[in-house]
Amino acid sequence: MDGVLGQQESFITGIDVPFTAREGETINASVSVLSIAIEPMSFRTILVRDDTGEEVINTQDFLVDPDTEFTNGGSFTMPPRDVTLTARVWHWDTATQRWVLDDELGDAVGLEEVPGSNITIEDPRVTSRTPVDGEVRLNVAVSVVNTGDAEGTIAVDFSLDGQVKSMLVTVPANSFVDASTFFLAGPGSYELCAEIIGTRNCVPVSVAPPGDQGIITAIDVPFLATPGDVVDASVSMMSVADVSRRFRITLTRTDTGGTVIDETVTVASFQEASVQGGFTMPNNDVGLEAVLFYELDGDFIEDEVLGDAVGVRPPASANLSIAEPEVTSVTPIDGDVRVNVAVPVTNTGDASATAAVDLSFDGEMKTKRIEVPAGGTTNASTFFIAAPGSYEVCGVLGEERKCSPVEVAVDGDGVGCPADKIDVAGACFTVGDMVLTGGSLILGTVAITRLLR
To answer: Is the separation of the CB atoms in 73 and 24 below 8 Å?
Structure first.
């Protein structure tokens, strides 16, 4: 097949490939061509990987009627790098009995970053206490948080007074789970620790003698709350006294000293009781301290203290950014060129957002409003009509501005073409396909389409 242009009988209207793909993914590609011949004519198309020379779409003959568009497709496996592609179309010249090149167009598929996990742990905590045969069963937990964009599994080690317990925990992306276990301990002061690779968090824990009158078994509050929400709280306790006894239970905010709960209850021997309260969530994390008192001779004696906390739930938000503008296709129109452009807008936040993107070309500006989903990418697309020449296409989103140079070769007499131009059919035009390199777009084929349409 001939690589030199003759009378143009078709042009490539587009290459359909994804903007990005992951390594190993099968990429489906297609090339669409419009016949501008005045009679039925045979055409061949091909799509080639520039890095390997692999024919993604093999040459195949198509007999096409005038003003008719046809499509040819193929596929390839995404390598661990970006891939640029070149499409070509030829027509069969019955006069010379050879295939003559009509048009060329380039496109690219970027390598998508593989999601990963990012796992951390909070401080461990005692969730409940239960007396067992002269000792106390401590139920303990730690929140394992994954701020990454992929599920992750990690080993969590608990330790208390020389006892060690391990478990594997799987945490979904952008979420958390509680790892929990229990220890048996006698009266005394201990250090409760939770550990993952690279992080070890410890807190002091006191265990009251079984001879004490009661124990706090749980503080029930949400792990996170939105500022302004009413947070419901409850404190549960168990009496370990030999007789029915009166207890006082308080729950206090450590940030303000404000009282959330202050209740007195009468509890039979080895029975449980629970008291409730609430508070309005502020704009900061709230530490809570529960204190259990028992009544003796008309006075309330402090028996046990337990702490917990409620964190501020972060608001959902969008995070928008733009990439360099792309020329998606070109079409000759009445002596000028229609240049279709797109600016990819990516949202790495956790809330969808509407983006107003300003696209400019040769002094003309158009604004496009698009909806960008959380974690997604949407193209802001439009077109401009331009004569041959050198231009800059720009996209602006807020304070972010990205531009790419676009060069369309101009007609000439073929005499004295510059070193970076070649002479075909008495005109100078830029050498090469549309190539995305360092943010620059060079459209040699625009000149071909312009000159020989």
So the answer is: no
Q: Nearest to residue 343, comparing CAs of 373, 364, 366?
A: 366
Confidence bin at 209 (pLDDT 50/70/90) = low
For residues 292 and 379, membership in a common domain is answered with no
Full-model pTM: 0.35
Mean pLDDT (the chain) is 85
Both 383 and 432 in one domain: the answer is yes
- Integer Cα distance of 193 and 205 in angstroms: 10
The CATH code of the domain that includes 152 is 2.60.40.10
The amino acid present at 54, given as its one-letter code, is: E
Q: Are 324 and 450 part of one and the same domain? A: yes
pLDDT of 236 over the 70 cut = yes
- How is residue 413 written in tokens? 């007499």
What number of CA atoms fall less than 13 Å from residue 282's CA on the CB side?
Answer: 10
One domain for residues 100 and 125: no
Q: What is the pLDDT of residues 244-274, one digit of tens each?
A: 889 999 999 999 999 999 999 999 988 999 9
Domain count, the chain: 4
Single out the residue in 142, 176, 210 at which a domain terminates: 210
CB atoms within 10 A of CB 240: 23
Domain containing 96 equals 1-112
Residue with tokens 């035009």: 429
Q: In what side-by-side order are the strands of the sheet with 152-160? A: 163-171, 152-160, 188-196, 199-207
Place of tokens 């290459």: 15
Q: What is the mean pLDDT of residues 156-168?
A: 94
Furthest CA-CA distance within the chain: 119
Asked if residue 86 lies in contact with residue 433, where contact means CB atoms within 8 angstroms, the answer is yes
- Tokens 């007789």 appear where? 243
